[in-house]
Amino acid sequence: MTIHALTDRLRHVVLASLLVFVTSAQAEAVQGRDYSLIVPAQPTDHPDKVEVIEFFSYACPHCAAFNPSVGLWATKLPSNAIFMRIPVSFGRPQWGQLARTYYALQSMGLLEKLDAAVFTAIHQEHQDLYSEDNIVAWMAAHGVDGAKFRSEFNSFSVTTKATRAEQLARNYKVSGVPTLAVDGKYTVTGQNFDEMLRNASAVVDKAAAEHKANKS
After folding, report:
1. What is the strand order of the sheet 179-182 is part of?
2. Percent of the chain scored above 70 by pLDDT?
3. Burial of 71 per CB tally in 10 Å (0-12, 13-18, 19+)
4. pLDDT for the residue numbered 180
5. What is residue 31's DSSP assignment?
6. Which CATH number fits domain 33-215: 1.10.150.20, 1.20.1090.10, 3.40.30.10, 3.40.50.800?
7. Where in the chain are the domains?
8. How much is the pLDDT for 171?
9. Among 4, 6, 66, 163, which residue's Cβ finds the most Cβ atoms within 10 Å?
């Protein structure tokens, strides 16, 4: 092998090593850039897993735009992570009705069927889904038994879940939506939705490593 060929080969090896180093550095979550700390850290419902929470509202146009992306992202989470959605109202009665809508759909097993449709109705069709009667009428128009939905909407279970959702938003110091929180410790940041999800993946990896270290 000539000196020139050897020099070229060494150059390629060095460049490849630098690329691996840069890629690893980019994948590592950095406080202040990719996430902020939740103080104090909050207990999670699934301590054996990395818990990811999306705080959202059907009334929020940004949440509507984010919903398809975060939904797809959540399906690719590792098996040691779990994704949850928490609807919040920030004390707004109309948003509170939509939080109850989410939990009523969830308890009736209708989220997969109608979740995206609620976003569409509000933000694309400009329908008024901010009162109980309007929500029940919309559900009936979409094949849901109106009486059963109204009963679930006003049930103790839904009331309890909606109340807890508001308390969680306060505990996590959520000031806007959508917000992604990881493992009760970290709030993900980002300049856009794609960056937020990339950062969320890195923070999930960070939390998973912490779980592993705590078990060892």
Report:
1. 35-37, 186-188, 179-182, 50-56, 81-87
2. 88
3. middle
4. 98
5. B
6. 3.40.30.10
7. 1-30, 33-215
8. 98
9. 66
In this structure, which long-range contacts are made by residues 163-172, counting pairs with CB atoms below 8 Å and at least 24 apart in sequence?
Answer: 165/86, 165/87, 165/88, 165/99, 165/103, 166/88, 166/89, 166/91, 166/99, 168/42, 168/53, 168/55, 168/86, 169/55, 169/86, 169/88, 169/90, 171/42, 172/38, 172/42, 172/53, 172/55
Asked if residue 26 has pLDDT above 80, the reply is no
Please tell me the predicted confidence (pLDDT) of residue 67.
98
DSSP string across 89-126: -TT-HHHHHHHHHHHHHHHTT-HHHHHHHHHHHHHTS-
